[in-house]
C-alpha cells in the first residue's frame, strides 16, 4: 500500500494534489505568521503593529539593564528562560493598545507641541542647557533611531499621556481604604509584661547516657566534622620577595634623600562639633562667638558633650563647608556653619602642622620601597626557578629555604578561612585557593595557583581528614548542654502558658509576678511593627496585635527572652495619614487601575504574536 502511495505522489495527479494540500495548510495553519502579520511584524494589538525595529530597541534596553546586574549578556535561550522577550512584548503591547484607543478617539499632537517636547528634552541639551541640533542628531544615530521614528514615538507618548491624564487623573485610594490602612499601621498598644528567666523554673535533671545517645542519633547531622586538608604552602609575590631583602644603612639613607620630598605629611586638625538643634543653644553659641568665649565654656554651659570627628587632613573631610571652616580657624577657635540637620558649632581642638618625616621615621617605608624595587626585577626569574624545582619534585621547605621564603602550614576546610595564615594572600582569594586544594589528588604533582600581580602559590598535601560522624565521647558536653537548654526552654514556655491561663481567669499580673519574685513592667505605646527604638521587636509586637484590646499572651522574642504580657491600652491613630503617604497610596491605586484598564484594552483588541519571526529576530541579533 505504501509503495502505491509513493508511486502516486510521483505522478502528475499526485503532485497537483500535493500543491493543493500545501496551499490549504498555508491558508489555515500559518496564516497568522505569513499572511496576517508579515515577516517584519513581531506582534499586533488590534490594528496596531509592533515591528522588528521597535521590539529590538526595547529588548536591547532590557538586556542592557539585565547585563549590568548579572555581569554578562544573557543568550537568547537564557533570556527566554528569564521571560525577558515576553515582558518586553507585554510592555510594548500596552502602548499599542493605548495607541489604538487614541486613534478611535481621534487624538493627535500638533507640530508645535512636538517641537516644544523636543526642546524641553534634557537629553539633547548642551552645556548652556538649551537644545543643540548636533547633540540631537548624534544621540539618535547612536541609538539607531531616525528622526521620523523619534517624532512618531514622542507623538504616541503624548497621545497616551492625554488618555492617561483624562481617564485616571481623578483616581485615588478610597477614603475607607485609607482609614483601614491608617488604623492598621498607626494604631498603638501598651502592655504590662514580665520576663521569665531560668530562676523561675527548676533546674532540669542531667540527661542519662541513654538520652544522650538518643539525642545524638536524632541530631547526628549536626555533629559531623568537615573534611580537613593539611597543607604546606609557599607564596611568591612582590611583598613576600621584598620581605627577604636586606639593605645597608647607606643605601637606606641615599634612598631617603632621593624621595624625602614626596614623604611630606599634610596638616591635620582635630575637629569637634556641637549640633545647635534648639533656639536656646544656637543663641548661646552665637553670643559666645561674638563675645570671644571659648568653645569648652559654651559647651559646658549648654550641658552638651562635643562629638569628635577625629584628627583629619583636609582631603579626608568630605563636607566642603566643614573643611573650609575647620581649616580656616586657629587652634582653639570655633565657627558656626549650616548643615543638612541645621546649624552646628565647629571647633578645632588641635593642629598638627605639615611635616617631613625623619630618616628613622621613614626607615620602614624606605626599606619596603627598596625591597619592592629589587623584587620586581627578580620575581620572573625566581618564578621560573621554582617551577623547575617543583617539576623535579623538590620539597617546598627546601625551595623556601633556598630563596629565603617562609613555608606556612594550615589545616584547611572548604571555606578557606584558615588561609589567613598567609600574610600576603588577600581574603578575596581564599575561596579560589581552597577550591584548588580540595581538587588536588594525593601523590600527584600539584601546579601553582596563579594570583594577581604576578604572584603564585604552591602547596603540598600532607594529610586528608575526611568528614565523619562525631562520637558521643567527642560531643558529650555539647549534647548535654543542648538537652538541658531544650528542657529549660520547654519549662519556661509551659510556665508562660500557665500564667496566660491564670490571667485569662482574672488573676492580676502583679500578683503572679510577686510569686515569681519579679515586678511587671509597662511599655511605651508601640505600633504593629514594634517600637522605633527596637525595645519592642517585631515578634513581640506581632504577638501583642494578634488579639483584641484585652489580649494576653506569651512569646519568645527575637533576642530569646521569654515574655508574658497583657494589653492595658489600645489606641486608634490620632492623626490621618501623612500627605506624602496618602499621595503614594493614591499613586499605587492609580497605577493598579491603569494596569487593569490597559490589560483589558489589550485583551479586547487581541494580541497576536509572530513567534517564528520573533525567535528568528532574537537569534540573528543575539545568538542562540
TrEMBL record:
Keyword annotations from UniProtKB, A to Z: Cell membrane, Chaperone, Membrane, Transmembrane, Transmembrane helix
Annotated membrane topology: Single-pass type II membrane protein
Annotated localization: Cell membrane
GO CC terms in record: plasma membrane
Molecular function via GO: peptidyl-prolyl cis-trans isomerase activity
Domain of life from the UniProt record: Bacteria
InterPro entries: PPIase_PpiC, PpiD_chaperone, Trigger_fact/SurA_dom_sf
Domain PpiC: 249-363
Stated family: Belongs to the PpiD chaperone family.
Protein name: PpiC domain-containing protein
Organism: Devosia elaeis
Upper classification of the organism: Bacteria, Pseudomonadati, Pseudomonadota, Alphaproteobacteria, Hyphomicrobiales
Amino acid at each position: 500500500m505504501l509503495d502505491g502511495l509513493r508511486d502516486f505522489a510521483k505522478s502528475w495527479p499526485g503532485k497537483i494534489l500535493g500543491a493543493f494540500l500545501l496551499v490549504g495548510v498555508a491558508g489555515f495553519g500559518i496564516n497568522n505568521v505569513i499572511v496576517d502579520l508579515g515577516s517584519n511584524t513581531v506582534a499586533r494589538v488590534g490594528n496596531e503593529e509592533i515591528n522588528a525595529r521597535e521590539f529590538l530597541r526595547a529588548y536591547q534596553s532590557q538586556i542592557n539593564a539585565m547585563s549590568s546586574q548579572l555581569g554578562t549578556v544573557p543568550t537568547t535561550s537564557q533570556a527566554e528562560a528569564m521571560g525577558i522577550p515576553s515582558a518586553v512584548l507585554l510592555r510594548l503591547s500596552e502602548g499599542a493598545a493605548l495607541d489604538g484607543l487614541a486613534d478611535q478617539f481621534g487624538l493627535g499632537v500638533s507640530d508645535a507641541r512636538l517641537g516644544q517636547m523636543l526642546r524641553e528634552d534634557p537629553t539633547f541639551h548642551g552645556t548652556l542647557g538649551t537644545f543643540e541640533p548636533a547633540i540631537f542628531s548624534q544621540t539618535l544615530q547612536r541609538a539607531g533611531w531616525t528622526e521620523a521614528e523619534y517624532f512618531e514615538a514622542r507623538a504616541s507618548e503624548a497621545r497616551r499621556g492625554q488618555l492617561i491624564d483624562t481617564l485616571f487623573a481623578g483616581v485615588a485610594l478610597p477614603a475607607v481604604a485609607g482609614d483601614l490602612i491608617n488604623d492598621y499601621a498607626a494604631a498603638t498598644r501598651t502592655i504590662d509584661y514580665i520576663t521569665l528567666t531560668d530562676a523561675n523554673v527548676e533546674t532540669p535533671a542531667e540527661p542519662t547516657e541513654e538520652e544522650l545517645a538518643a539525642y545524638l542519633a536524632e541530631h547526628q547531622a549536626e555533629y559531623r566534622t568537615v573534611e580537613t586538608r593539611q597543607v604546606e604552602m609557599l607564596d611568591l609575590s612582590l611583598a613576600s620577595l621584598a620581605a627577604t631583602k636586606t639593605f645597608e644603612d647607606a643605601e637606606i639613607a641615599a634612598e631617603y634623600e632621593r624621595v624625602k620630598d614626596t614623604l611630606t605629611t599634610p596638616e591635620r586638625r582635630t575637629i569637634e562639633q556641637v549640633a545647635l538643634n534648639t533656639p536656646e543653644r544656637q543663641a548661646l553659641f552665637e553670643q559666645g562667638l561674638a563675645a570671644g568665649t571659648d568653645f569648652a565654656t559654651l559647651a559646658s554651659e549648654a550641658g552638651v558633650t562635643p562629638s569628635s570627628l577625629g584628627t583629619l587632613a583636609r582631603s579626608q573631610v568630605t563636607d566642603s563647608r566643614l573643611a573650609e571652616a575647620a581649616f580656616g580657624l586657629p587652634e582653639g577657635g570655633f565657627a558656626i556653619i549650616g548643615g543638612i540637620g541645621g546649624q552646628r558649632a565647629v571647633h578645632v581642638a588641635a593642629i598638627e602642622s605639615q611635616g617631613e618625616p625623619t630618616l628613622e621615621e621613614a626607615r620602614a617605608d624606605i626599606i619596603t620601597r627598596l625591597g619592592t624595587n629589587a623584587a620586581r626585577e627578580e620575581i620572573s626569574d625566581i618564578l621560573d626557578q621554582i617551577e623547575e624545582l617543583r617539576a623535579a619534585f623538590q620539597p617546598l621547605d627546601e625551595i623556601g629555604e633556598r630563596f629565603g621564603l617562609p613555608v606556612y602550614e594550615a589545616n584547611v576546610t572548604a571555606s578557606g578561612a584558615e588561609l589567613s595564615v598567609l600574610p600576603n594572600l588577600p581574603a578575596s582569594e581564599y575561596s579560589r585557593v581552597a577550591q584548588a586544594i580540595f581538587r588536588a589528588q594525593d601523590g600527584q604533582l600539584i601546579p601553582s595557583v596563579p594570583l594577581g600581580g604576578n604572584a603564585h602559590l604552591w602547596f603540598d598535601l600532607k594529610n586528608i581528614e575526611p568528614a565523619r560522624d562525631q562520637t558521643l565521647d567527642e560531643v558529650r558536653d555539647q549534647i548535654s548542654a543542648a538537652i538541658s537548654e531544650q528542657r529549660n526552654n520547654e519549662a519556661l514556655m509551659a510556665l508562660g502558658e500557665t500564667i496566660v491561663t491564670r490571667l485569662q481567669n482574672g488573676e492580676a499580673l502583679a500578683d503572679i509576678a510577686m510569686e515569681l519574685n519579679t515586678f511587671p513592667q509597662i511599655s511605651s505605646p508601640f505600633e504593629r511593627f514594634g517600637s522605633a527604638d527596637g525595645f519592642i521587636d517585631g515578634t513581640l509586637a506581632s504577638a501583642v496585635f494578634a488579639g483584641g484590646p484585652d489580649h494576653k499572651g506569651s512569646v519568645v522574642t527575637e533576642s530569646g527572652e521569654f515574655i508574658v504580657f497583657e494589653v492595658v491600652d489600645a489606641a486608634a491613630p490620632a492623626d490621618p495619614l501623612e500627605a506624602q503617604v496618602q499621595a503614594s497610596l493614591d499613586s499605587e491605586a492609580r497605577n493598579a487601575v491603569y494596569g487593569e484598564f490597559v490589560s483589558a484594552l489589550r485583551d479586547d483588541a487581541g494580541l497576536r504574536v509572530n513567534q517564528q519571526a520573533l525567535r528568528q529576530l532574537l537569534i540573528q541579533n543575539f545568538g542562540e
